[in-house]
Design brief:
Layout (H helix, E strand, L loop, with lengths): L5 H11 L4 E6 L1 H12 L12 E6 L6 H6 L8 E6 L8 H11 L9 E5 L9 H10 L5 E5 L7 H8 L6 E5 L5 H4 L17 E6 L1 H9 L8 E6 L5 H19 L7 E6 L5 H4 L10 E6 L9 H10 L5 E5 L13 H10 L5 E4 L15 H6 L3
Parallel strand pairs: 1-2, 2-3, 3-4, 4-5, 5-6, 6-7, 7-8, 8-9, 9-10, 10-11, 11-12
């Protein structure tokens, strides 16, 4: 690599003013170039108007913290860290960057922070992520993909106290967070997540129930959940039945909810599902079941959903994903109820069984059809 000339620096300075978003990878080949570039900018940011940065960490080492400083200028509002699986062979650089952000390397305008670790990562980033959240109280959007080695408790506590947090995404692969840290399930209610509007969570029902039950915001409009079973659904249902019911009951209390998207990796029934009918302002509902987690809805259940969800515009139902003789797919009779009882529905996605005898004679009254938005 040839040495940088003054003309190179001048061209870079001219164009760097217009760069708002930057993605860079920390590795051995890029380190030499960045170090040469840094010599020409000893006291000023390389990209002075940078707002969004994604750092892809590949086999890092201790000097990477200094390289990161070149791009993490005070103007940055959006920061995402991604850890390559091989980076855990030398995890010190990963921790150095997190420790820098949690310590002296402050980003005063940071409003969005994300960290996505490989599931097999051996590095526990939990304590440093918690410190980052504590030192950046202006964060409004938070996206965390935990590894199996992450401790979750401190991060959740720090996230819950962010005064301006509007969007929170958390992925707990395997759903074992509460098993690794039982104290997660014993924290008191304390007015957490006061400004939350959007919540996207993937975990087991016990952890989901804990987080949902601690949201104090009255402005939640968007909930997306993936319920994970730790073992065969039939066995898990018996052990986690109370947590599943608590999840649905808590969701039913978010009276201003507009969008509800649930992927069920656990079994449930209408008795549990009907708690969702408390969300009277829903406009979009998506319910998708996992393998062997079929949800049976009768026509009378759909009629009740139509009465309670008068504003519903989009409905997506995939209620059967098994091949057992007992599997009960929705039929044309269910479609007829939806066409009749959901007057504002505009978009419908549903998996139906067109083979059953009850499908003969399917029709919708013309007067009803004329009033329907579908």
């Amino acid at each position: 690599m040839r040495a940088l000339q003054k003309s190179d620096r001048d061209r870079f300075t001219l164009h760097s003013q217009h760069i708002k978003r930057f993605i860079f990878s920390i590795n051995a080949s890029s380190r030499q170039f960045f170090q040469q570039l840094a010599a020409h900018f000893p006291s000023t940011p390389i990209l002075p108007n940078l707002a969004s940065v994604m750092v892809y960490i590949v086999k890092p080492s201790k000097p990477d913290l200094e390289l990161s400083r070149l791009f993490l200028s005070p103007t940055v509002t959006n920061l995402e860290l991604q850890l390559d699986p091989e980076a855990d062979e030398q995890p010190s650089g990963y921790q150095w960057i997190l420790e820098g952000l949690a310590g002296e390397m402050k980003l005063p305008n940071l409003t969005s922070f994300g960290i996505r670790a490989n599931y097999h990562s051996i590095t526990d980033a939990g304590p440093n992520v918690s410190r980052i959240l504590q030192s950046h109280q202006g964060i409004e959007m938070l996206d965390i993909l935990f590894s199996r080695s992450h401790t979750v408790l401190d991060t959740l506590c720090s996230a819950a106290e962010l005064p301006h947090l509007r969007c929170f995404k958390m992925t707990d692969p395997g759903g074992y967070a509460a098993q690794r840290e039982p104290k997660i399930l014993s924290l008191p209610l304390d007015g957490s997540f006061p400004s939350l509007e959007s919540l996207e969570l993937s975990s087991a029902p016990d952890c989901l129930s804990y987080i949902l039950g601690r949201v104090s915001s009255y402005n939640v409009q968007n909930i997306r959940l993936k319920m994970i079973a730790q073992g065969p659904p039939q066995e898990f249902e018996a052990a986690a039945g109370t947590s599943i019911v608590d999840c649905f009951r808590t969701i039913g209390g978010f009276v201003h909810l507009k969008v509800l998207d649930i992927t069920l990796g656990v079994r449930t029934t209408w008795d549990t599902f009907q708690h969702l009918l408390g969300c009277k302002e829903l406009e979009t509902v998506k319910i998708v079941v996992g393998w062997d987690c079929d949800l049976k809805l009768e026509e009378s259940h759909l009629e009740q959903m139509g009465r309670d969800w008068r504003d519903l515009k989009t409905l997506h139902l995939l209620l059967v994903k098994s091949i057992t003789p007992q599997a009960m797919c929705p039929t044309f009779a269910h479609l007829q109820v939806i066409a009749t009882d959901f007057p504002n529905l505009r978009k419908l996605m549903i998996a139906c069984d067109a083979r059953v005898a009850s499908n003969t004679g399917f029709s919708v009254d013309r007067a009803v059809a004329a009033q329907n938005s579908l």
